[in-house]
Design goal:
Length: about 240
């Protein structure tokens, strides 16, 4: 399920964008949910209250509001420390490039919006986020379950069980070897084996310290074992370099 939000005070533009997104997602057979906000303040309040979005289509200019789309983006990135959500900016003005640079937007659409461009953005997002092909499978009893890799914060080994910590706060427990799970599924998907008890998703790491990593919730910190420090840091920076190319 992709959680998408549209934030635009132009009702006609928002409605047309929602219809286009529904059509694109349906054609791609992708599950989705779409929420619409009419101001930057409404969107920010929702995020502050715990709302989670994967993809935000964010207008830059709001006619009757104090906060514009650029400021909302900065709040999301800097104050909320959220670099996971992909932000697609929208505007009738093309000269916002420098202002948006430090917000790291996923894309920029010029109004009036064109269906082909919206389709292109969604397909690019699907490719970059690997939502079509990358999932994680595990068994509980005789049943097999799967979750999207992007939703995994980290995997913990505890008392002969593995605990899957997910972005929405859920925890799934099952039996298995953390070493085998890492080698068979997670190593190829940019996870870091930081400790005998922890494998962490690179995409959920915000700070890499000498002996620990801090996750995007800005609360969870996980230890890096002494004998893995060099290997973990080397792998971390290799992933970072590759992602920036």
């Amino acid at each position: 399920m992709i959680s998408v939000t549209i934030c635009d005070d132009e009702l006609k533009t928002g409605a047309e964008l929602e219809c286009s997104l529904i059509d694109v997602f349906d054609k791609l057979s992708v599950k989705y949910e779409i929420e619409v906000f009419l101001s930057g303040e409404e969107l920010w309040k929702a995020i502050e209250s715990g709302a989670h979005f994967d993809l935000i289509f964010l207008d830059i200019e709001f006619a009757n509001n104090e906060i514009n789309g650029v400021e909302v983006g900065r709040l999301i990135r800097d104050l909320h420390n959220n670099y996971m959500v992909s932000i697609v900016y929208m505007s009738r003005v093309k000269s916002y490039a420098l202002e948006l640079f430090d917000i790291q937007p996923f894309n920029f659409l010029v109004k009036p919006l064109k269906y082909e461009k919206i389709d292109e953005v969604i397909r690019k997002y699907m490719k970059v986020s690997r939502l079509w092909s990358e999932d994680f499978t595990y068994k509980i009893g005789h049943n097999t379950f799967k979750v999207w890799v992007k939703d995994i914060r980290y995997l913990e080994s505890y008392d002969k069980k593995l605990i899957l910590h997910l972005a929405d706060g859920r925890r799934e427990e099952f039996y298995g070897s953390i070493k085998e799970v890492y080698q068979e599924q997670l190593k190829k998907l940019d996870f870091l084996f930081i400790h005998a008890s922890y494998v962490v998703n690179y995409d959920h790491v915000t700070v890499m310290k000498f002996d620990q990593v801090m996750l995007v919730d800005n609360v969870t910190s996980l230890p890096i074992s002494k004998h893995r420090k060099n290997e973990v840091r080397e792998r971390y920076y290799k992933i970072m370099k590759r992602r920036r190319v």
